[in-house]
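Hi R.,

Here's the chain you asked about this morning:
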Amino acid sequence: MRRRTGRLRITLAAVLALGAGLSAPLPNASATAGTPVPDLCGSQCADILPPGQNGNATLADILAHRTLGTRPAHSSDQLGRYDALVGGYGTLTDAKLAEFFNDSSFGVPADQVESVTRPREDVTITRDKKTGVPHIKGTTRYGTEFGAGFAAAQDRLWMMDLFRHIGRGELTSFAGGALANQGLEQQFWPQAPYTEADYEAQIAHIKANEGERGALAMADAQAYVDGINAYRKAAKDGRYFPGEYVLTGKVDAITNIGEIQPFKVTDLISIASVVGGQFGGGGGGEVQAALSLLAAQKKYGVVEGTRVWESFRQRNDAEAVLTVHDGTSFPYAEKPARPRGTALPDPGSVRPEQLVYDRTGSAGTDTKSPLKAPKQLRPAQGMYDDGVIDPRSLDPKKGMSNALLVSGAHTASGNPVAVFGPQTGYFAPQLLMLQELQGPGISARGAAFAGVGMYVQMGRGQDYAWSATSAAQDITDTYAIELCQDDVHYLHHGVCVPMEKLEKHNAWQPTVADSTAAGSYRMRVWRTRYGIVTHRATVGGKPVAYTTLRTTYRHEADSIIGFQMLNDPSYVKDARSFQQAVSHIDYAFNWFYADSREAAYFNSGMNPVRAAGVDPALPVRAEAAYEWRNFDPTDNTAAYTPFAAHPQSIGQDYYISWNNRQAKDYNTAGFGFGAVHRGDLLDQRVRRLVEQGGVTRASLTRAMAEAGVTDLRGEQLLPELLKVVRTAPVTDPALATALQQLDSWRAAGAPRKETAPGSRTYGHPDAVRIMDAWWPLLIEAEFRPGLGDELYTALTASLATDESPGASHGPTGAHGGSAFQYGWWGFADKDLRQVLGRPVQSPLARTYCGGGDPAACRGALLATLKQAVAKSPAQVYPGDDSCAAGDQWCADSLQHRALGGITHPGVNWQNRPTYQQVVEFPAHR
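And here is the predicted structure, written out as tokens:
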């Protein structure tokens, strides 16, 4: 096990000396003036990030867009190529990849230079004509990082400002009181309700415990912030700042009076807390899990109810698709043989902790009070009336990212091939931005989250590339703290101690952008040594508060060390050094690597070493015997599982990840990792390619793209559904026709894809509509009668039944792209195979469809199919602000959610990474 106690302590004098020396090249610097940067990809590295690089728009740009439909340069020029892959993947060749991706070679050819900016003498920012991506080259490290911050502000200043306010719980005061804004800050602030002192403590922790790299990272962060502020001031003084500052009342359009608040290093941690919580968390939800367990025990008794519940929980399902598929075991978060310390609530006692108090005016409502806006601003009036962003699009349950890698033994060239990237939703501008960084100790091109882009977070180096998918292993636990004295005191190691009260007061007024009437409220959370209070209940008749504690709490900034290493060509030289680098990233991610010799994988995260007998799937008593090993609540540190215990591999025949299980015995943190998972869509296709041999960049991209337009239910579940209903002749003509339509769609591969580019009509539209209508009906008919209302409802609270592309009720909302991550497909698959008498590993404890009787199951399926067939397109696809009722293609379509004043048209649905790389290195240093 490892304990986060620091790798190398350095003195304050050493920190200051290091900072003073940043203006000079470091020893063994990889990028100095006049030294060409090695690029060993040979034009075989490509990437894409829609809609476009430019995410800033002046007031004039916004008004022109709203009145004339124009858009700023490079704000939308990657969207068409990204969208076109849906129609073009079938005939894709390596030579045609350039039609759908950018060339991600280092540098910019002289004839492709669009602009060169020199914000300081020691750095240049060169942008290319095709995409406007900034290629930042510094002769000093400070200059390189200053340039990164300057370029980030050029492309994402308003968005970075939004996200630092989301992280700090101040979005409504900053951008307006729209109901969605209220929901967004109420979603994120309780996860990391930090004071300024808390942020400063994280910086101090890194400087004190992470050695020279920690000091260097904080110096890099300061240089990055200095660059942001340099652009912020220049843009304000020059009146070319983002127009959203005018529309939200921050700056006067006529006098230029007003201020864009300076950025601080602590703002970067605020942004990191949002990004990390959204994409790198894992675990939690133990209270809801306990409620569903209690419901199962109530229906079936303790022993049988627990067995039923465990069969749905699927912690270590034998049929689950795995990333490390060679049988290597990595035991973690396993169910103990004899659990101890479990703190199940008394039935009916659980209530969520209240967050919002003292609402006034429009708080908690959607009341509008439009201003009388100047005529010239009216085209943009109300653009934030529905909020700057739908909270569902940043739901932490959202599934993200995929990766496909094939080792050189199975490729045409003999070199590994990778197609991978993060699936971070669709926003305008995008949360990620592209950049190239070349300077002393830094050499990389790729994507970084705007506002924390000191380093490339996913991308390529001189002779290697890397990417990540969200792993979501269990790094968050729920504790039951026994109350004493009153509701705000609790027992800690036998002593009655007070909870810490943290509050945030927000108030807003209507603006041109957001017409929400004036209002205010107060958010309050209680912090304990076991984390933030989320619920109140009784356990064994005694009052308790349930708290949630994640290992990365108070450590959001620590992962900067791993990203620094990934960008350092003197550190990452092969697969093993890559694995060591990403092991310094504390968030729960699956990391993938490819160079000319090896493909590799590593699962990162601060996995706590739990006390013996503690069940990580359920709440545990807050007592010393059940705490994480070596737990110190002062800085939230503990003992963590060692490097060797994390799922990892080098040179496996192929790797796939689509947020699926990592490896054998590496237990899941939530429901839904069973026999059918969207990872199967990749695994089956890549396995076939490997069996055939001669894999190319194009063939691997085709596999990804085909999986990205395939309906998981149609490919994996429909054969079993058809088998059950066809155990006897179907005499109803309407149902027989529907079944034939579904079968034809299945035989075609179950695509949700246009008949031709631009047709906006699906092939097999009736079959797709029938499946969309049938699925929720058949799941309820299959499981609710046997489970009963209470248990069925409790289980659906832990795992939604459906997440199809057009399901606006899904975790991501409509138009979010990511689909088929969360649903009851694995439950239905096992249950139907059990009905059919087929072999099932890790079976459900009982058979539910028709009570296990094939004829009764068939009757339930046909009855719900009849209901589905009767539903009109307008009923299945009811329409929204983007789509007319009944428009099937549009209901699925990707819509870039505008974070600012520039919008974009909807494009074809693809279940695909937002930022994506296609790489094949032919040589190595």
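One quick note: The chain is about 30% helix and 20% strand.

Cheers,
M.
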